[in-house]
Amino acid sequence: MPFRGRLDGHPVVPAIVDDGEAVTCPVCGDTMYPRSAPGKARHFYHVSDAAGQRCSSGGESEAHARAVARVEVALHQQFGESARIETEVDVDVSEVPTPVTERRTDALATFIDWNPYFGEGLAVEVQHSHEDKDVQQVTHDYLAAGYSVVWIRAATVLLDTFDYDTIGAEFERDDGSGYSQRTSKAHQYTNCQSLLYSGEHAWERVPPYAHPRGQDDLITYDICAGQGCELRRVHKPDGSYTFTESDEYGPDFPLKALKNAIVREYDHEPFWKWAGSQYHSAQVEKLLATRPEIDRCWGPKGFHEWGRRETLWTNHSDQPLIELHECMYCPVQLVTNHRGRSGHSTFCLYGREPDIDWDDVYFQASPPECDHYLYDEDAIEDYCPKCGATMETPDTTLRDHTSWIPP
What is the rounded distance in angstroms from the CA atom of residue 3 to the CA atom of residue 23? Predict the structure, then answer.
C-alpha cells in the first residue's frame, strides 16, 4: 500500500488528503486517491490496477513506509523551497575512507545553499526496517561527507504529535540522536582508535613480496594499523583509492607463519598471545606492514625468518638487550637493540655480517635514520628493495636501514 504521494508538487501523506482528491505517485507518476478500510491504515491506491501492480513498495514494511512518508512531509514543511526533499536516496560517500561508496537514507533534505548548521543536507534514518545498520559507522560517513544525520524510531514518527519539532529536538538534547555538522566531528564516531585520537587513519603498506599470488599483477594496498579498524586502502592506476574491509588482497597464510619473522624483546608468552596484544584483528597484515624486521627475502615465504642469534649486550640481570640474528635463507643479518623504553628499539638490517667494532661507542650512540640496506654486491641483490636505488659500481656500499625512534 502506498503511503506517499505528491499534490501540486509537494509530498503528502494519506491522512491529510481528502477523499476523492487525486495525487500523483512519486514512483510511477500515475494517479492515486486516498482511502480508508477496516483494519487498515489510511493509504493511497492507484486508479489503474496495472499501475498498482507495477509500482510496489518492494517489500518495505507498512509501518516504515508510513513513517518515512510523514518525515518527508515534515522536512518539506520545515525547509520549503530552500531544500530538495527526497526519500530512499543514495548519498555519495565515495570520497570518505569507508568500505562503501554510497549510503542509502530514508529521507534527505539537500540544501540549495550550504546550511551553517546542517551542512550539505540533513539525512533522516527511520529505525524500523534498518536495525541492521551500523549506526556509528553510518553516522561517521554522513558527517565526513558533509551531511548531518538524525536517527529516529518509526514508532515516534507515527505518533499523532509528530512534526519537525520532534526531529529538531534530537539535535538539542544532550542524549539526542541528532548529529549536525556544526556540533559533531566525524572522527568521533568510529571504531578506529587512530582516527578517533589523531583524526586520520594510520595507513601502512602491506608488502607485496609476502603476497600469495606472487609478483604478477599485484594489488598495491595499505591497511590501517589502528586498533579496532580493518579498513584497507586500495591504490588505483589513476592515483585514486577505493576502500574495503575485505582481506581478499592479503596474504593467505596463518599467523603462526610469522613466528620466526618477528623478533620480540620478551618471548616468554606464546606467539599467538603476544600477537593478540599487539593487534586485535587483521594481525597478519598489520604485522607485515608495521614490523621493521620484516623485509624481502628469497626464502620460501618471501620474507626473512631469523634463526641463529648471538647476544652482544646484556643488562645487569644478564638479559640480552642487543643481539645479532641470522636469516635462515639469505646472507642478511639483523641487529636488534632493545635498550631504553619499550617501543624505542632499533632494528638494523645488513646484507652481510656488519663490519662494526662492537664497543660502547656504537651501543650508546643513536643510529641516524636511513632508508637503505648495507650491501655487498656479491652477497645479495645489487639494488635496494626498499627504494630501488642501485649500486653504481662494485665498490659502492648502501647504508644500513634502521627504525630508530629517538628517546
Answer: 11
Cell of 190: 568510529
Q: Which fold has domain 60-188?
A: tt1808, chain A (3.90.1570)
Alpha-carbon Rg for the chain in angstroms: 30
pLDDT of residue 378: 45
| Cβ atoms 263, 252 nearer than 8 A | no
Q: Which residues pair with 125 in a beta bridge?
A: 151
Residue 227 has pLDDT above 60, yes or no: yes
Cell (9 digits) for 372? 637503505
What's the pLDDT at 291? 92
HSE-CB for 104 with a 13 A CA cutoff: 5
| CB contact at 8 A, 107 and 75 | yes
What is the structure's pLDDT at 392?
A: 53
Pairing of strands 40-46, 31-37: antiparallel
How far apart are the C-alpha atoms of 166 and 147, rounded to whole Å? Answer: 19
Mean local confidence (pLDDT), 345-349: 76
- Mean pLDDT (whole number) for 204-230: 80
| In the chain, domain spans | 1-56, 60-188, 202-289, 292-407
Tell me the CA distances in angstroms from 96 to 114, 117, 119, 130, 186, one per residue in order.
19, 20, 16, 22, 10
pTM, rounded to two decimals: 0.66
Long-range contacts of 198-206 (CB under 8 A, 24+ apart): 201/97, 201/226, 201/229, 201/231, 201/233, 202/226, 203/233, 204/286, 204/289, 204/290, 205/289, 206/249, 206/250, 206/251, 206/285, 206/288, 206/289
Does residue 323 contact residue 379 with C-beta atoms inside 8 Å?
no
Least confident of 263-267, 353-357, 368-372: 368-372
